[in-house]
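[INFO] parsing input record for Myosin motor domain-containing protein
[DEBUG] input buffer:
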Amino acid sequence: VLSQLRACGVLETVRISCAGYPTRWTYEEFALRYYMLVHSDQWTAEIREMANAILTKALGTSTGKGLDKYQLGLTKIFFRAGMLAFLENLRTSRLNDCAILIQKNLRAKYYRRRYLEARESVIRSQSAARAYIARRQAQELRTIRAATTIQRVWRGQKEQKKFLAIRKDMILFESAAKGYLRRKQIMETRVGNAALVIQRAWRSRRQLQSWRQYRRKVTLIQSLWRGKLARRGYKKVREEARDLKQISYKLENKVVELT
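[DEBUG] output buffer:
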């Protein structure tokens, strides 16, 4: 069979085909098989543009000089030998990456859900434990507050009784001290008043004696002055009487002479 194929030129045709672009794919087949090699933003309804984007990303841009890894036809894409294996490797790697990403996301979602459930359980347990601790602390605080209130009231009553006793003693002491001071003040007032009465009587007596002496002196001076005035008047009257006597004597002599 091999000799017949060689004789018919089939093997040579295959060799020549392999030396050029032996693999041919339509745009639709290529896009449907290798669409995952580009981002979903580049997925379009135009199959030719989508295939061109896939080839550009995977194999680079075609220059049209016969040295490229692929050529674009009107309905098909022509690849050199080994390009499909390279694209398959890229597809397999991409599918593996996508599978790993899906598994990662699923596992992340699964373990996140388990974590959230465990976290919620822990939070509920912690909240219950904290609520129990808070209630116990509140009960202890109420007990301590009640004990503190009882102690405060008892100590307040005790201190109040002590204060009232001290206050009563102080009031008694103050009343006794004030009574003593008042009595002392009254006695001092009485003694002072007696001294004032004595002083007033003594001063009155002394002033009276002084006034009497002054009156006696004034009376003496007046009597002396009046006596002097009286003697002066008496002398004058006596002189006048003497003159009258002489005149009367002369008149008597004249009367005698006339008779």
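[INFO] The chain is about 85% helix and 5% strand.
[INFO] shutting down worker
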